[in-house]
Amino acid sequence: MDFLKSSAGTLISLLSLLLLLSTCSGLYEDQIKKFDWRSVHVGSLKHAYVDLNHFQPRVLLSTHEQVIGSLCPKTGEIIWRQVLEKKPRGDIKLLQVSGFADDSSDTAAAPMGSHLGFDMMTVQGHAPALVRGWNTNIGTIEWEWSIMPLNTERAQDAVWFYSNSVLYHVVPAWRSHIEVTSYFATSGHTTGSTSKIMAAWINPESCLLSGSFYVCLDGKQLISLDLLAKSTQVIATSLGSEPSSKIQDLPGLNGALIVDKKLVSVNKDQAVCPDLSSDSFIVGSFNRRKVIAYADLINNMLNINAVYLDDCSPVPELHLSVAFADHYGSPSLRSFDCKSTRNSDGKNCLFLLSTSAESIVAVQQGRVRWAREESLANVIDTQFLDLPLADSEGTLENEMKGKAGDIATAFMRRITTQAIQIKSLFLHVIGLGPPPTDTQRAGLVRDSFGLHKMLVLLTRSGKIFGIDNIAGKHHWQLYLPNVAGFENSEQMRLIVQRSSKHFPLQPLCAIVAKSVENGNGVLFRFNPITGQASEGGLLQLNYKIKQLALLPETEEDYVKGVLILDGANKVHVEPKHATPLAHGLYLYTADLKTAELEGYYVKYAGGELSALPIWNVRLGGHNSEQQIISVASKNPIEHVHSQGRVLGDRSVLYKYINPNLVAFVTQAPDATHKSVLNMYLIDVVSGSVIFSMTHRKVRAPLHIVHSENWLAYSYFNDKVRRTEITTIELYEGSAQANNSVWSSLQAPSMPLVERQSYIIPTIVEAMRETITERGITNKHVLIGTASGGIVEMPWHLLDPRRPISSTTQGREEGAIPYIPELPLPTENYINYNQTVARLRNIYTAPSGLESTCLVVATGLDIFVTRVAPSKTFDLLKEDFDYILISIVLVVLTSGSLIVRHLASRKLLKQAWK
Amino acid sequence: MHLRLSYLLIVLVSFFASGWGFLEHDGWINIDLHHALTPARPEHFSHRGNISIPSLNAGLSTIVQNPLTDSELESLKVLARQNGFYRLRATVTYPNGSSQRFLTSSKACSLLLAQFNDVLWVSLDPNGYVTGITTSQDPAPKISECTAENTQQINEKNFSSDVIIRHAELAPVPDTGSFIQKFEREREARERGEVRDNRGFFAKYWMYIVPVVLLVFISGATNQDAAK
User: Where does a domain end: A310, A333, A365?
Assistant: First the structure.
């Protein structure tokens, strides 16, 4: 009996353990990096120092993304990286590496671990200005001090320089004077009082600091002042003519400047080589002599030359000529260093360049040693493209598309294609098949589940990347110089004009941007699989772009045309042959500043397109004090599978699914409520305000997702100082007005609105809903947090119909009782420890599998993964035991056959008895 | 030109399922309506009528509208046959004298088929300023296209309009109060021992059922052994 008791006890405990171990939605340890990858970036270069003679060779840098770091000079990999505060607090004003000071006599290097010297020092921000000393080997902060300037507004333009262990803070008061305060660099103690230097000639447009010289351009002359000199004597240096471009300083030489590609010195003690002419100069040392190196791009060849500073004689050892790829853009030399070897022949010199496409390129030994694509730190748009079909599947696809009415011919074609397939399979097996195509060789062939795609990324600098979404390999790169985002803080767009579905025709993507030169529109079309320009490539439009929309596919070449509304409210279609498809389309524009919306109806009559204004909405309030801070429309490729929601009493609450519904959020300061946030749901075809809601004492940052019949947005509540999420669901009611066709002009006027607010115990940086092929899978909301994590939040938790009191009706409906705070369990972080620094946006795309949604999160880093909101119901587990199931099947079938045989024999025997 | 007080309609705005939107400072507005009827001249607007709303919170309105002239009706029929837009321009005047222009459109055909019965939705922002004015008609029964035949017999020339004011609503805040109350109540109930266990039968009594089942199994097995 005792034994029974104990065994029952263990069984019970086992059972309860099983109950506790309910399904886990997190990732298993062996799945890490199985279908996700992350690429880490630092951003475009601001300051850089190559140091090959350190015991640990390194490249120290700071970037425009407020990152400091150290790279390995051999491979370009990041040794360490510190992501500092956001702008303006983290803006790096000065990076000083010991041993790289202006004059060689100065050295701030101190024994390790002492608080007197520094390896590397940064100055960032203006109010307060933070001065930090760093350990360059491991990237830790060693010491820090800060100052709070008296006049914070003036301090915005402050500049810093370092000389002889003293850090100088230079605050210009435009058209009046300069204030210079000096501090001991490592301690922050002032060395004296602030000196005021009268200088009425300084202005914010044309002044800079070169070493200790404050220099301003005044027409044909440079006016300068040595801030370290005892006498405040103003030096005027005349130039031959008025320079056509901005003046630049030349780091490393006190008082040297680059004016119109030439070197000029305002310091009479500092000679430069004035005859050199180049796009970029740097100062370094070679054979213990100071040299000036300069780089130019001539016919796609990068030429690097150098001269000794003292006698301007060339340094032949440093001459270099390298083929330089187009997609890097125009280079500028940033730093170089040579390894001191026995025979210093310049072979061991590493030149570091930054380019206009925000790449960091290292050139050594006559070739590009490595390149970092730092433009990926600013991704502004992404698309997932299906890969092309393998040839055999392509022919099959072709056959399926053939519109043969005759059964007999279709049958014949099928038989022949299958015969060809069998033949090619046979040839392939015996090794006589046709050679694989380029894309096949690169492994770019569609898989059976549509999980393998080409990820096209558009970056702010105008560089476009084609990246394998499984392996993370960069397949191609393109660079569009002289393009920028639009007015209204609208970014460039990446649009898919033709998908990979139309087999013999190649897919087609387009970039829509603004030309930097004249502000007109630019259209660039390319093949997203190969990265080659197609359909003529770059197209300069002769009008400004105000709004754009995609047209339906054309009949003949399946291209989705781009409908463009220009600055003068005229409409254009690109390509031209898709023009008739624009008839009957509706467009809207939104001005962020005035918060005015306008709706247009596009008409095609007599070969001409025209746009008729049909509605307008003013969200600006009386004096246009409200400004639009966010516009959220639904994903155009979204499918809504379920038209309604089954209630507790088995009746159906129909969803209000209006594809033309767009959410607008405005914000304005308010006299009584401090800050007011208004949310409007507007039908952009009829222009009617479907719903509006106001939040008091609430402000940006705002992040919004809009999908199906719901909306979720996060904001900061000023009153209670926390981030909250408000969710809204729209329902038509218990009957559907028109279940086949939606018409905004004859829509049910007033949907039922369910709403609820939740507290989210984190800072939200980005939000996006998951999307799948058919919309059957549950929707989850991916929430990017400030710490770089991405949380998968089921819609059940955000549901505004969560009942306050747990009623039976709510339970029947499957709604969880309301809890004001949303849970953030760690297993719901889809990027586990792969945090995305400065997470800015999350993009989602459906895969070929209904259960799976592809995700790319961008920020300083890029993280690519896939999520399955309703678990992988259409996919076997990857550790599925195929052998066991086959053995079981074989044994069972053979067993049943044998037993049947035996049974019949037995029956026969019995019959004979 | 004889002006006729056509209709005075009082519409109670009681469409909101939950929570009215109220303005802190009530105000009045006056709306001047102009419409474009000629398809050839889309920028030509003629006067249609005037609406005054003395109190935005009460939502009552006085509507004075001109009847259409014969030629206007004809051009509207032409517009309807072309499936064009009936465009309405509303000029809103506020108590402080400033005015704003709004534009709204509906299909001319559906206006004609609705016998000039339309609804004007006036959407307000939280401070009582108009964000948008929308005109809409009840969905036309069956007929969806205007042909010469089915527009022929329409002779109605008087507009009959309803004005509905839509206020901005106040957003919900996280309901921590009632959650804490509920939590407290549950805790008290538990302390008093009044908590009603509403779990399922198996969830409640599994600790009794499992040993019994096990006992049955084990005894069955031992019995078999004994039988052997």
Answer: A365
